[in-house]
Amino acid sequence: MAASAMEVVCVTGGSGYIGSWLVRLLLYRGYTVNATVKDLKDEKETKHLEALEGAESRLRLFQIDLVDYESIVAAVTGASGVFHLATPIIVDQVHDPQKELLGPAIKGTINVLTAAKEVGAKRVVVTSSVSAIVPSPKWPPHLPKTEDCWADEEYCKQNQLWYPLSKILAEKAAWDFAKEKGLDVVVVNPGTVMGPILPPTLNASMLIIHRLIQGCTETYEDFFMGSVHVQDVALAHIMVYENKAATGRHLCVEAISHYGDFAAMVAELYPQYNIPRFPKDTQPGLLRSKTGSKKLMELGLEFIPMEQIIRDSVESLKTKGFIS
Ligand SMILES: NC(=O)c1ccc[n+]([C@@H]2O[C@H](COP(=O)([O-])OP(=O)(O)OC[C@H]3O[C@@H](n4cnc5c(N)ncnc54)[C@H](OP(=O)(O)O)[C@@H]3O)[C@@H](O)[C@H]2O)c1
Q: Where is the NAD-dependent epimerase/dehydratase domain (predicted)?
């Protein structure tokens, strides 16, 4: 079903890897989109969006800072739906976790939800992550992880896993806000998102396959729960927005799998690269499951399989000149 061009939706983080795909699919479905970027003067954030089909007449760009409430109000004004993707993503060197990650993630989420409530948006889709589901060392080891599982805040603090902590606390803030203020919120929790790249720069998840191809032996023990095609993640956002029966969290992976499974398939498909070999279980205790994303499957999402995720990622890395 195509949306009416009169229906305006806002995508925060519209310039990003997933955000660009979401803007693309929303325009394709006929929505008018208010997409946010951090710097309107930076062509690296705007040019790929302006080139999208439908952008000329139905895309408006807004500059926001997650901690600047008024900038967010301008972007959501007139929107009947809000997709909140923007968040700082730093997984390597974090110097000041509060300032660099936790503050903007949590305050930004509250600002976006407050503004959405103020302008009368009817539904907000919040992009959380599997990082709000794992690491969860206390989850019963005989059960596959589901949307009922929350990542362990104390474990994250002790191990200085600041990005997962920011996703846990931002998602919890969203649920608290929804309950207290009566705002309709649904959440998507994607795994490691890969596939064709629209922006000119590489985001953190595409860096994972880029680094693997260059021989990196990191196993992402606390971060990985499965891969997912970027187009499916964008589609999942639209499905949970449009389907009023969708409620709660939605794990979004093509299957619950280990990073080693992913790396082994990259090695099989692309023997010309020197892909490291990993032990069978790179995520000790994580039970594999082909139906981990049952909720999204029941809404009608047919996940693109891992083989295609890898092929689309590698071909895109080649086309964009990141690998030869
Ligand atoms: N990629 C994955 O594997 C994955 C998995 C699970 C969940 N997620 C979630 O999906 C969302 C999008 O991630 P992504 O992979 O598309 O990453 P990305 O390409 O880095 O996008 C992040 C976006 O947030 C914006 N942003 C960051 N800090 C901001 C601030 N202070 N004010 C305003 N905007 C700000 C960025 O703007 P600039 O481009 O200007 O920096 C960018 O548009 C995030 O919420 C992330 O946690 C991603």
A: 9-246
Give how far Cα 256 sits from Cα of 38, 98, 109, 147, 231, Å. Answer: 33, 31, 27, 12, 18
How far apart are the C-alpha atoms of 322 and 319, rounded to whole Å?
8
Query: Residue 188 — φ and ψ, nearest 5°?
Result: -115, 135
The structure tokens listed for 255 are: 């299957």
pLDDT confidence of residue 91: 83
Cβ(221) to ligand 1 under 6 A?
no
Residue 5 has pLDDT above 70, yes or no: no
Active site residue 167: yes
Asked whether the bond before 137 is cis by omega within 30 degrees of 0, the reply is no
pLDDT grade for 92, boundaries at 50, 70 and 90 = confident
Distance between CA 13 and CA 63 in Å, rounded?
10
Ligand 1 atom, smallest distance to 192 CA:
3
Q: What contacts 84, CB < 8 A, 6 or more positions away?
A: 12, 13, 109, 112, 113, 124, 125, 126, 127, 174
Please report the pLDDT score of residue 4 as a whole number. Answer: 65
The CB of 45 under 6 Å from ligand 1? The reply is: yes
State which of 68, 69, 84, 89 you would mutate to test the pocket of ligand 1, scoring each by most atoms of that ligand within 8 A of its C-beta: 89
Q: Check pLDDT > 60 for residue 258.
A: yes
Give the residue whose CA is nearest to atom 41 of ligand 1.
Answer: 38
Contact indicator for 25, 234 with CB cutoff of 8 Å: yes
What dotted CATH number matches 8-319? Answer: 3.40.50.720
**Residue nearest (by alpha carbon) to ligand 1 atom 21:** 16
pLDDT at 262: 98
Q: What is the pTM of this model?
A: 0.98
**From 122, 167, 280, 290, the catalytic residue:** 167
